[in-house]
Design goal:
Aminopeptidase, alpha+beta, 15 strands, single chain, globular
Length: 358
C-alpha cells in the first residue's frame, strides 16, 4: 500500500478511533477489532486511510494484507472472516474525501462484500474516474439481518403464527424430557474466559461447520483472532457468551457483544446430538428476550442472511463484492490475477458437475 496515503494502527489512539460517529457502530468498526486482527491475521501492519488527524479523525478505512489469500490489502476481516465490513465516516463530506484518498492511493484494494445502501460505493465510483477501474458485483444474498426491538420482543413468540409458537413449545418439552434445561448469558470474568471459549468453540465444531471444515477451532489463526478479540471485548465489558444447557452439557452457544444499545450476534453453533430439539432457536429466543428486557434498541445478526435468520429478522442490507484496480502495473496485474481466479473457479465447478453427471 502507498505508505504516503495511510497511517499505521499504532499511530491512532484507541479513543480517537472509536469516537468517529459512524452509523451503524458495528463491532467491526471498533479499535479492538482492528487490534486483534493485527495481532493474529495480518501480514504486517494494519494501515488506515484517514480523514482528519490521528487525534481527531472524521473518516477511516482500515486495510491489511491477510496472512492467507491474495497478497493484497483487504478491508479488515472482509474476506478471511467474511464479515460485511464497511468504512466509517461521520458525514457525507468526510465519506467523499475518504473515497478520494482511496482512489488516489495507486494500490489495488479488496473490500469483500460491502453494504450498498450507503453513498460510499457511488462516491468511490466517482472518485475512481480516470484513476482506477472499480468492480462491483451485486450479491444475491443480503447481509447483517436485524430486529428493531421494542417491548413486545420480551415475548419473542408473540411475533410468530400459532404453528410456529406450537413448534417452540414442543421443542421445549422435548428438551426437558432429555434433562434439565438452563440458559446462560455470561459476561465472562478473566479467570473463566478460556474455559468458556473452549466450550463454545467445541459446540460450534459439533455442528455443520465442523463437518464442512469452517469451525473456528479448525483454523489456528482464526481461533487465535477470536480468542484475542474475546479477551479485549471482555476487558471492555461488552463480551457475552451464551449457552443453552441440557443437564449441564452445552447444546447451543452464541458468541456476541453488547454495545451501543445493541446485541451483536457474531458466532452461533449447536451440538447436532441435540438437533431434534432445535437448541439454536431456543437459545435465540432467550437472548432476544434478554436484549428486549434490557431496553436495547436492536438485535443484530452479523454475516449473511440465511434461512434460520429469516425466521427472526426480515430486515437486512444489500451487499456487493467491491474491488478497485488502479490504472498502473499493479492494478493490471491484480485485475489479471483475479480474472484468472474466476476462470479457474468456473472451470472447477464445470468439471465437478460433469463428474456428478457421469
Amino acid at each position: 500500500m502507498n505508505m504516503a496515503t495511510t497511517i499505521p494502527l499504532s499511530s491512532i489512539p484507541k479513543e480517537s478511533w472509536d469516537k468517529i460517529p459512524a452509523s451503524p457502530r458495528t463491532p467491526m468498526r471498533q479499535y479492538i477489532w482492528a487490534k486483534s486482527y493485527q495481532e493474529t491475521l495480518a501480514q504486517g501492519d494494519v494501515r488506515a486511510f484517514l480523514v482528519g488527524s490521528a487525534s481527531d479523525p472524521v473518516a477511516l478505512a482500515p486495510f491489511a494484507v491477510p496472512s492467507s489469500g491474495p497478497k493484497r490489502p483487504v478491508l479488515l476481516g472482509a474476506e478471511d472472516l467474511w464479515e460485511s465490513i464497511e468504512v466509517a465516516a461521520g458525514d457525507e463530506r468526510a465519506l467523499m474525501e475518504l473515497a478520494q484518498r482511496i482512489a488516489n492511493c495507486g494500490t489495488p484494494l479488496r473490500f469483500g462484500h460491502h453494504p450498498t445502501d450507503t453513498r460510499f460505493l457511488e462516491l468511490l465510483a466517482e472518485a475512481c474516474r480516470g484513476k482506477a477501474h472499480i468492480v462491483t458485483v451485486m450479491q444475491p444474498t443480503r447481509a447483517m439481518p436485524r430486529i428493531e426491538l421494542d417491548s413486545s420482543w420480551a415475548e419473542p413468540e408473540s411475533h410468530f403464527n400459532s404453528r410456529r409458537r406450537s413448534d417452540f413449545r414442543r421443542m421445549g418439552r422435548k428438551a426437558a424430557k432429555i434433562g434439565e434445561v438452563t440458559f446462560e448469558i455470561v459476561e465472562p470474568r478473566r479467570d473463566e474466559l478460556r474455559i468458556l471459549l473452549d466450550e463454545a468453540f467445541a459446540v460450534e465444531a459439533k455442528g455443520w461447520k465442523g463437518r464442512s471444515g469452517t469451525a473456528i477451532s479448525q483454523d489456528e489463526k482464526t481461533e487465535a483472532f477470536y480468542r484475542d478479540y474475546a479477551r479485549r471485548a471482555a476487558h471492555e465489558g461488552i463480551l457475552r457468551l451464551c449457552f443453552m444447557r441440557i443437564d449441564g452439557k452445552a447444546a447451543a452457544m452464541q458468541f456476541a457483544v453488547e454495545c451501543d444499545r445493541a446485541f451483536w450476534l457474531i458466532k452461533v453453533g449447536y451440538d447436532e446430538a441435540f438437533k431434534g430439539v432445535s437448541p439454536g432457536n431456543l437459545l435465540m429466543r432467550e437472548t432476544i428476550r434478554y436484549a428486549a428486557l434490557k431496553g436495547l434498541k436492536s438485535y443484530e445478526f452479523m454475516g449473511k442472511e440465511a434461512g434460520w435468520t429469516k425466521l427472526w429478522a426480515g430486515d437486512a442490507r444489500p451487499i456487493a463484492t467491491l474491488r478497485t484496480y488502479p490504472y498502473n502495473l499493479a492494478g493490471l496485474s491484480a485485475f489479471a490475477g483475479d480474472g484468472l481466479a474466476v476462470l479457474q473457479k468456473k472451470l472447477a465447478e464445470r468439471m465437478k458437475r460433469r463428474g456428478a453427471d457421469a
